[in-house]
Design goal:
Shape: globular
Radius of gyration: 29 Å
Largest sheet: 8 strands, mixed
Strand content: 15-25%
Structural class: alpha/beta
Distance between the termini: 80 Å
């Protein structure tokens, strides 16, 4: 009688393998969830849901926007528009508006230059309060200066309970998807909660103050789902969704006494008054780089979407954590079972079908304000692929070489080496101050439109060969190619002597002056990044993350605007051995930064790239 126990059948072994793959997938997702990459995937998936859903009706909110037409019609400096605001407030109240929100912060009194203007605005707010409360916005950064610079309308609004902060809540990728409804401030040694503009407008519209306690908020008897006092904004649509009236048109109707027109505009609505200008526009889920800056949303319209979410109760809360884990685990188990039990060709088709159906179900649920963890579901299905294929290869006749090849194809060289040495996949990273260089070819898109693809590929490969050689000569690391651009990293750990900032600037100068078929532009910034192995559904690669990378890319994009071919930041200049070698080009406002950014260059022997230059054609 054999002493060996009964062996498991192949189907049972395969079932255990599927469970093991599912457990491994959940572990990897748990690690990835802490990374910026996973957070961005989740946010971008949410954006796609909004894009596919489209526009919803917005009957209760109206915008009065200070647009270019208003600036053209009103010659005064906007700092002294107090009488115009007062006229609009009184006209809106006479037209039957239920509440008005001023998305305009009055930071300093103007009595020194325009006596009586402050009192005129405060009087309008006081007069209309019984029939139409006016919620006055303020910037928390100016709160501490009110004792030295008392602004009458702010004092009055605070006394009437009509004061609210106008700050927006920015996500890690500079998009606005959530809004903090309460903020904490220190007052008299105590911590107090201040309301956001949107919440206060919604309270006044419903006639009911929100009740906040133990992390829970209730408005008009309905619980508002929040996380750390932030509510996800259920955007009604892209920019232009809400009815909007130009400030100048509204003012003209008020002065003409056209009450019927004003009633048609604002009767029974919440009115938000704010600026619609490039300086106050932000990317939201409906923003795409393919459609351009016109799809970014004005701050006042973001507040309007927040008000709309609060009034309609169309919230987007996350499902309970156990439900999310169950859905992700089920997706991983189904994906691994398909890949383990079926032939690969059939499994791939079925897996694609399952992912499409999952996406359709997730979108349908989102259309009914139910937020599935669709990004995690799809990612879990993809993560299963390399492990399921690895199992198939391990059980095949040529399991050794085939397994190694499959891991390299699906998750990259680093993970393949990790599996060989440690028998596990590791995700690691470190924070380090480096210099990041972005390069790009001027006019490459237009060049590609008229040339044969084979010629383009040959020229681009030759160009990259020259650029990579220059980067390596200066001790840089080519992190990745992005279309016709290059992302390179310079750090102190490099073997080439010299500070990484100096080497990056010298490298950028050499790149833009190199003799190639193309004109090159380069942008450089020095700062902290996170360097490490970042995972995806296809592989784990070594890359750099952080605002330093984003800012370097934005600096490179300024070359065309400033008619330069090499630009670097103040941080890079200060880190150089000889900062005096840098030449100040301009001080520009960059999205995501409050203060202007100084950008510099160094003297070059080749001429700077101009806005209309296209690739050179000597060797084409």
């Amino acid at each position: 009688m054999s002493s060996n126990g009964p062996r498991l059948s192949k189907p049972v072994r395969s079932a255990f393998v599927c469970v093991a793959i599912t457990a491994l997938t959940l572990s990897i997702l748990g690690l990835l969830a802490q990374t910026r990459f996973a957070q961005i995937v989740h946010l971008k998936t949410l954006d796609l849901h909004f894009l596919f859903r489209g526009t919803r009706a917005t009957p209760n909110v109206v915008l009065v926007v200070i647009d270019q037409k208003s600036y053209d019609a009103i010659p005064d400096v906007q700092l002294f528009w107090h009488p115009y605001y007062a006229e609009v407030i009184r006209a809106a109240a006479a037209g039957g508006a239920k509440v008005l929100g001023l998305d305009i912060a009055f930071a300093v009194p103007v009595a020194k230059w325009q006596p009586g203007f402050d009192e005129t605005l405060a009087a309008a707010v006081a007069e209309t309060a019984p029939v139409m409360p006016v919620v006055c916005g303020y910037a928390p950064s100016f709160t501490g200066r009110q004792k030295d610079w008392p602004v009458p309308v702010n004092i009055l609004a605070s006394a009437l309970g009509l004061s609210a902060f106008v700050n927006l809540t920015i996500d890690p990728d500079d998009f606005v998807r959530e809004q903090e409804l309460f903020a904490t401030e220190q007052e008299g040694g105590e911590t107090v909660l201040r309301r956001s503009l949107a919440l206060r407008v919604a309270e006044k519209f419903t006639g009911s103050d929100a009740v906040y306690g133990q992390g829970s908020l209730t408005l008009n008897g309905v619980r508002v789902p929040m996380e750390e006092r932030r509510m996800r904004i259920n955007y009604a649509g892209p920019p232009g969704t809400f009815p909007r009236i130009s400030f100048s048109d509204f003012l003209a109707a008020a002065r003409a006494g056209d009450r019927r027109k004003i009633e048609n505009w604002v009767k029974g609505a919440a009115v938000l008054v704010g600026v619609d200008a490039v300086s106050d526009r932000h990317p939201t889920p409906f923003f795409t780089r393919f459609q351009g800056e016109r799809w970014s949303s004005a701050g006042v319209e973001i507040h309007a979407n927040t008000v709309h979410t609060l009034l309609t109760h169309e919230f987007l809360p996350d499902l309970p954590r156990p439900v999310q884990i169950g859905m992700v685990a089920s997706a991983a188990l189904i994906a691994s079972a398909l890949l383990v039990f079926l032939p690969f060709s059939r499994a791939a088709i079925y897996l694609l079908a399952v992912m499409i159906v999952t996406g359709f179900i997730s979108q349908t649920a989102f259309n009914h304000d139910v937020l599935f963890p669709s990004g995690a579901i799809q990612l879990s299905s993809l993560i299963c692929v390399p492990f399921a294929l690895s199992y198939r290869f391990l059980t095949a006749e040529k399991r050794g070489n085939l397994f190694h090849q499959a891991v390299r194809v699906f998750v990259g060289k680093q993970v393949a080496a990790s599996l060989e040495s440690a028998q596990k996949i590791t995700l690691s990273g470190r924070r380090e101050v480096v210099t990041v260089l972005f390069s790009d070819i001027r006019g490459f898109t237009a060049f590609c439109e008229t040339k044969d693809p084979a010629v383009i590929v040959e020229l681009l490969n030759n160009y990259f060969a020259v650029m990579v050689r220059i980067i390596l000569q200066h001790g840089g690391h080519v992190n990745k190619f992005i279309g016709d651009g290059i992302l390179a990293i310079f750090s102190e750990s490099d073997t080439v002597p010299g500070k990484h900032s100096d080497r990056a600037v010298r490298c950028g100068a050499a790149m833009v002056q190199a003799k190639t078929a193309f004109q090159t532009g380069a942008g450089i910034h020095t700062g902290p990044v996170v360097l490490g192995n970042i995972g995806s559904s296809e592989k784990i690669e070594y890359t750099a993350l952080g605002n330093t990378v984003n800012l370097a890319s934005r600096i490179e994009s300024l070359n065309k605007e400033l008619k330069q071919c090499l630009l670097f930041s103040e941080n890079t200049r200060e880190d150089m051995e000889d900062p005096s070698a840098a030449v100040l080009v301009s001080s520009v406002q960059v999205r995501g930064r409050t203060l202007p950014l100084n950008v510099y260059t160094v003297p070059l022997s080749a001429p700077a790239v101009t806005a209309d230059e296209t690739p050179r054609m000597e060797n084409v």
